[in-house]
Structures are given as C-alpha cells and as structure tokens.
Automatic annotation (TrEMBL):
<feature type="active site" description="Proton donor">
    <location>
        <position position="493"/>
    </location>
</feature>
<keyword id="KW-0460">Magnesium</keyword>
<keyword id="KW-0210">Decarboxylase</keyword>
<dbReference type="Pfam" id="PF02784">
    <property type="entry name" value="Orn_Arg_deC_N"/>
</dbReference>
<keyword id="KW-0745">Spermidine biosynthesis</keyword>
<dbReference type="GO" id="GO:0008295">
    <property type="term" value="P:spermidine biosynthetic process"/>
</dbReference>
<dbReference type="InterPro" id="IPR000183">
    <property type="entry name" value="Orn/DAP/Arg_de-COase"/>
</dbReference>
<comment type="pathway">
    <text>Amine and polyamine biosynthesis; agmatine biosynthesis; agmatine from L-arginine: step 1/1.</text>
</comment>
<dbReference type="InterPro" id="IPR022657">
    <property type="entry name" value="De-COase2_CS"/>
</dbReference>
<dbReference type="InterPro" id="IPR029066">
    <property type="entry name" value="PLP-binding_barrel"/>
</dbReference>
<feature type="modified residue" description="N6-(pyridoxal phosphate)lysine">
    <location>
        <position position="100"/>
    </location>
</feature>
<protein>
    <recommendedName>
        <fullName>Arginine decarboxylase</fullName>
        <ecNumber>4.1.1.19</ecNumber>
    </recommendedName>
</protein>
<feature type="domain" description="Orn/DAP/Arg decarboxylase 2 N-terminal">
    <location>
        <begin position="92"/>
        <end position="345"/>
    </location>
</feature>
<dbReference type="InterPro" id="IPR022653">
    <property type="entry name" value="De-COase2_pyr-phos_BS"/>
</dbReference>
<dbReference type="InterPro" id="IPR009006">
    <property type="entry name" value="Ala_racemase/Decarboxylase_C"/>
</dbReference>
<dbReference type="GO" id="GO:0008792">
    <property type="term" value="F:arginine decarboxylase activity"/>
</dbReference>
<dbReference type="InterPro" id="IPR022644">
    <property type="entry name" value="De-COase2_N"/>
</dbReference>
Amino acid sequence: ASLYKIDSWGAPYFSVNSSGNISVSPHGAETLPHQEIDLMKVVKKVSEPKFSGGLGLQFPLIVRFPDVLKNRLESLQSAFDSAILSQGYGSHYQGVYPVKCNQDRFVVEDIVEFGSPFRFGLEAGSKPELLLAMSCLCKGNPEAFLVCNGYKDAEYISLALIARKLHVDTVIVIEQEEELDLVIDISRKLGVRPMIGVRAKLRTKHSGHFGSTSGEKGKFGLTTMQILRVVRNLEQVGMLDCLQLLHFHIGSQIPSTSLLADGVGEAAQIYCELVRLGAGLKVIDIGGGLGIDYDGSQSSDSDISVGYGLKEYAKTVVQAVRYACDRKFVKHPIICSESGRAIVSHHSVLIFEAVSSSATSRPTMRSFGPGLQGLLEELTDDARVDYGNLTAAAIRGEYETCLLYADQLKQRCIQQFKEGSVSLEHLAAIDDLCEIVSRVIGVSESVRTYHVNLSLFTSIPDFWAIGQLFPIVPIHRLDQRPGVRGILSDLTCDSDGKVDKFIGGQSSLPLHELEGGEGKAHGGGGGGYYLGMFLGGAYQEALGGLHNLFGGPSVIRVSQSDGPHGFAVTRAVPGPSCGDVLRAMQHEPELMFEALKHRAEECGHVNEIARAELASGLARSFHNMPYLTTAASCATANNNF
Ligand code: PLP
C-alpha cells in the first residue's frame, strides 16, 4: 500500500485488506470492518459466466459505489454545518451538484435522493443538462436550487422559466449581458417572476491549469461595469428584487485556502455592494473548485493536489462571507457551492485488465553470438574499428566509452542496412549487442510495456488532454512486492494512447509479473491482472470519446449489504457494443449485417450449417463490445448469443 501511497490519496474510502486486495469502505470513516467491500470479489462476481442471468459483462468496468456518493454529500454538508455553527453564522449552506461532472442518470438521481434532507440541488450548463435537472428536481424537492449557468438562448431561458412554473427553485445566472433582455422579455410573456443571478468576474486569479476561467480576462461572467448595468436595467423595469443570487467560480482545483479566502472575500464585498444598491440578494454561490488530492501529497503547488480538506474549505468560506457581511451590516446569505469534483470523484473505480506485457528483449550471448560473427565480416572498416574500440574499452572497464562506441557502431550498421550491405539478422544482432552493453552498464531502459484492455481516450481523457494524473494501482496481489516497473499502453492505434506518468512524479508504475510469465496474462473467471484507476468519477465519462471506435466501459452499481458477500450488485449495464459505436457514427449495423450476410451467400457459403455459423459469428461481432475478449471475459462475451 505504501508503494502506491494508497493511504494518502485513498483514505477513508480505499485501503488494502489482509488478502492483498483493494478494499472499499463505502461509508468512509464510519464503515464498520464487516461492511468493507473487497474489490476483487466484485470482479470475480461479475466475471462469472452466469452473472446477472447470463447478461455477461466485459471489461473495462466502472464500479460505482452509491454509498460513497452519499458519504461525500453528507461530509460536505456536515463540514459546512459545523463551520456555520461554530462561527455563529446567521444562515445555512445549501449546495448544488454541477451535473456536467457526471451526468449519468443514476449518479444524478442518487445525489438528488441522498441530498434531499438538506435541500441539495443541481446546476446545469446547457439545455439537455437543464432538462435532466428539471425532471429530477420536479419530482419533489421544492426547496432545492436549480442553478442555470452557461451560454443561454431564448429556448434555454424559456425552459428555466417553465421549471420555475413547475415549482423548481430555478435561478437564471446572467453570464452574458445580452441574456438579461431575454430573461426580462420571456418572463413577462410567460407571466413568471424570475429568480436571477449574476456571475461576477473576480479580480482574484487562480494560477493553476484550472484557473483560466478566473481573473478579469476569464471566459465567463460580467465585469463590474456590466454588473452595474444589469442592476440599473433591472431597477428600471421594477425587477431588482429578482436579483437574488451572486455567483462566481474561481476555477476547479483551488489549490489553497488563502486563494479561496481571497476570492470569496472579494465576492462577498460585491454581494454587500449589490445589497446596498437595492438588489434582493439572498444567496452567495461560490461555484466549484473544492479540490481533490489525487496524489495524496496535500500540496498547494500542484494541479493534482490541494492543501486542505472539506472542513478547512468550509471554515474558510464561512469566515470570509461572515467577515465581509458583518463589516457592512448585511444579513448573512445562504451559502451555495457547486462542488462537482469533490462530490463524485471517489464514487467510482475504473477496472481494466493487463492482457500482456512486453519487456525490452532480453538478449543473451547465445542469441547474438553467432549473428555477430557473420556481422563482423559484413562491416565496413570504420564500423570494425568501432567494434575493436568497444571491446578494448570493455576490457579496460571504461563503461562510458563502451556506450559511446556501441552507439556509433549501431548507427553505422543502420546506415549499412539501409544501403543493403547488412542483413536483417545482423541488424538484430547489433541491437542485442547494444542492449547487453546498456544492461551491463546499468543504463538500460528496463521498463516494460503492459498492454491494457482499455482506451485512454474513452476512459481517462483528461490524462491525454491536460496531463491530469489519477492514481492507478493493481487491485490485487498487493501483499506481493511488485517485481517490475511498467508503463501502460492502451488498445488504440495511437501513440498517445499510453500512460507513462503516474502520481508521485513517477514515469513508470511498480507492477507484478503477469501470471503465466512474461507475455500473456491467463484470465478465466477473474484470473487476469486487474488494475484500478481511482478518483476518476468526475468529468472522465462525459469527456471520453470514441477514438478507434472503442466505446464506454461496462458499468455496475455496488452497494454495501449485510448479505453473505457484504455487497450487492444492484445494476449492471454492458458497455456499448460494436454495433452501438458504429451507429454513433451514422452507420447502420443492421443493414451492414444483412449486406455482409448476403455477400457471404454470394461467395459460395451455400451449405446451411456454414452459412448459419458465419451469420452468427458476424452477429456476435456486432453485439460484443469493441474491447479484447480476454480469457476472463470470453465465456460471458459468447453468452450474448
Ligand atoms: N461551476 C462552474 C461554473 C464550473 O465551471 C465548474 C467547473 O469548472 C464547476 C462548478 C465544478 O467545479 P469543480 O468540479 O471543481 O467543483
């Protein structure tokens, strides 16, 4: 566990149990020992051919833990409740979940359900997000906010006003000045009194990667002058009382509480000024930005870590708002936050298999010796001199010089190969010779490549797009010291499809030898080598693409239960099939299937049995997921038919 720093980034949800497997504590620090879930047991269960009535699940797999979601929500609420109580703050905290972090139906529905005792609402940034937020909240959560952010047209604004008619507490946040006229016009037409917010562009700037939305030149929000114009316009039409919320967003992954205090303090001053100008303000919405410590370093100097926890975050916010309001004798507002990453990151684990590993070839004297003899005869005089110098340097023990001559010799041989005067076998022999020299000297790259049954572009897009690191760890065999180091190479035909940077500044990951030796992992009923990507519950699923037509993973939902296994799989959905991903690109799998079948008949497969076999093989290919069918998933994949 210490090798992978699991206790640092994983607590209180992930640890290693006595079997050497990752253990999930679904209720965080309140989890009782018998409630812990062994992740490998989950893998074994869903790998059983009979799992879920023969539904069959292929990897990669997202395992969602709704109990973790509940615990995150409750922990956030209780951090604010405690800060409010201890500081004698005169109002309450009422958060919203920005659905863009993970729009999965069950994630959103869980959040609405688990958050209803404390009026937790939703934030939307587009029309489909608004539609989903409206339909989730209209089921009976009248006091929860629905905060509407993002670029808006007349249709978006009409929808938000309709939501208000449906008794959803919907706030339209003005992000562009032009939106105000639309809100005034449409609300009059629909006969609805809108709840309006303004998004302020703060001067406070967060300098990390996620801070580009902050500062005066940020993409979103209104400048001070624009805010004043909004106030004046609303006043003129007798709607200044509708301006009820002040919003800002410093950026995701706010690194430190000092920056947070600075930003919230500035916004609280704007809030007080707007109250002075007569706005009906009652909510300060501090946006997102509550960070996640992806590497467990608790550092405020990095994009993947933060130097605070939930309690410090809440305390800082409450303090900054209270201080500004007290100085101006302004009634304490409701504090709303739009924390996304902090709510959903921990709730899911992406599990994928390493299917094979390739070491850099391990040459022996035996393998290249005979080749070398022939090679020497083919070499030019210059190359032969290099070889002589190389052996002489080796005898003298001058290893740096050896390396130099080995490299020079190799380059000459490559040139000779290109000219046709060195054979393929001899070129291979020289590669081996150079590798042996490097190994003896100890500079050899002995990092292996582990081929994983995954698409990085689909499942860890932020790694590729913005270099975001997530903890990646084998989910079993953690009681055995890993014998090798490796990088992960995905299935896509793309050289960017590899993970070669890991938390802790590592360029390779300690990994175990695949059982069955170098090369293939032998799977079968959960017998493969499984890795987990943790803390990836936010953003990755929606950002992931279809590169090489690899679709999303299978998804299961696992709840803690007091039954024999300690858990129950309450939902299982196979990932998109080849047919599904083809359909997403406008192809018509049914027609393709028919055309291929017809062609097969034309090609002479007249025998009834041969024809049926061919058709069922084709059908299987359309129905199975695009990922490799490994030994572990073979039985289940075939079960689809
Ligand atoms: N609110 C707004 C307006 C955002 O732009 C974002 C994300 O960048 C969020 C909330 C969520 O931020 P986070 O996931 O950092 O909490």
